[in-house]
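Please think about what follows:
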Amino acid sequence: MSNVYHNDDRRVVVTGIGVVAANGIGVDAFWQTLVEGRSGVGPITLFDASHLPIRIAAEVKGFDPSIHLPAGIKWKRIPRQAHFALAALDMALTDAGLSTGSLAKSIRQVNVCIGVSTSAIEVVEEAAHNVYKGHPNHVRPWVVWATQPHCVATTLAEYIGTRISYQTVAAACKAGADAVSNAVEAIRTGRTDIAIAGGTDASICATTCSAFCTSKMLSCRNEDPQRASRPFDRDRDGGVLGEGSGILVLESLAHARGRGARAWMEICGGASYADTFGAPTAEGLGVCMSLAMANARLDAGAIDYVCAHGPSDVVIDRVETAMIRNVLGSRAYHIPVSSIKGVTGNPLASAGPLEIIACALAMRDNWVPPTANYRTPDPACDLDYVPQARRMRIEHALINVHGMGGGNTTLVVRRPPP
C-alpha cells in the first residue's frame, strides 16, 4: 500500500461496518461477546462430524437467509459465504447511512473488493456426491456459478447496482485484509471516492474439516469447545476453524465529510510481506509491521495496541510474539496485545476485517478486547495479552494477519479525524 496523498481529502476512513461471526450476528452481539470473552466455538452441526477426531468449530449460529438477507435475493443459488457477505454488506450500508439506491446515483464508480480463502467447497462437495452416487442430473446448473472464486464479489456488485468495479483476492487468512488494502489504495490514488471491502468464508464442511484434522493444526478439545482456542496460552494445542464475514464501507475523507458521515476510524498505513523460504512460519510479520508503520509515518512510540493474528498455534503465536518484540523493542512490554480468535475461532479470509471492526469498536468505547481463554503464561510468549477486557484509550493500533502459504499483512489504524 503506497502512502500517496494528493491532499488530506484523500485520507481513507471507515464509515460503515457489518459483521456476521460465530460469536454474534451484528455489531452489538459481536462486540459484547468479545468484551466478555465469550467464545462462539461449539460442536459441529453443519454436517455429521462424529467420525472425525475433531468435532468442534466456530459456526455462525442462528443465521437464516430468509431473514438476514435483503429481500429479493435468490439465496438458494449462492453459497453460504455469499450469504454472510451479503448480510454484512447490508448492515454496513445501513451503518454508513447509505443504500444501494444512493450508491447507484454516485457520479464515480464504487469499488468492491472481497477476500476469500477458497471457493464454496460445500457446494462442490454436494455436487461431487451426486456425481459419484450416479445422479449427475441432480447437479444444478447454478453450481457452475456458485463455485467460482469471484462469486461473492460479483454477487455483492450485482446487489449494489450500477457503476461498479469489483475484484476478488484469494490469499488464505490474509485475503480480507488485502482486499481492504486494495480498496484503500483505490481511494488514496483517486480512482474512487467510496469502496466496499472485506472478507468472507464458510468452509466448515466434511472435506475441509477432514483435511484440517490430518494437518494437525486444530485443537482436539472436543469436550471443552469454548476453551479450545486459547491464543498465547502455554497449554494451547491448535486453533479452531471458523466462518463468517466482515464488510467495511470505506470513503475518502472529503467524500465522508461532504455527506456528513460519521467515521469509525482512519486506515493510515499497511503492508504485505512474505515469509522467507525456510524461515519459521509468520517470520515475515516483523518486516511487515515495520513497513506498515513506515507507510503510516509512525514509529513504535505511537502504537497503543496490537490486534494480533494469534491463531492459538503452538509455533505461530511464539513467532508473532518475537516479531512484535523485535519491531517495537522495549515498548512491546508496555503495549496490550490481544487476539480475538479465542472467541471467533479462525474465520479464514474474514479474520482481518473482523480485527479491523474490533479495533473500531475498541476506539469507540475505550475498551481493549481480551485474549479469551488466556490463563497460563507461555515463557516464550511474554507480552501483555490482556486476560480481561481493559479500559484504555487507543489512538493507533497495529492489526496483524498471517495466511497459509507464508503471506503476512499488517494494517495501521487510528482514531478518525475530527
The chain has two domains: 8-258, 268-414. Residues 2-6 have pLDDT under 50 and may be disordered. The radius of gyration is 20 Å. The chain is about 30% helix and 20% strand.
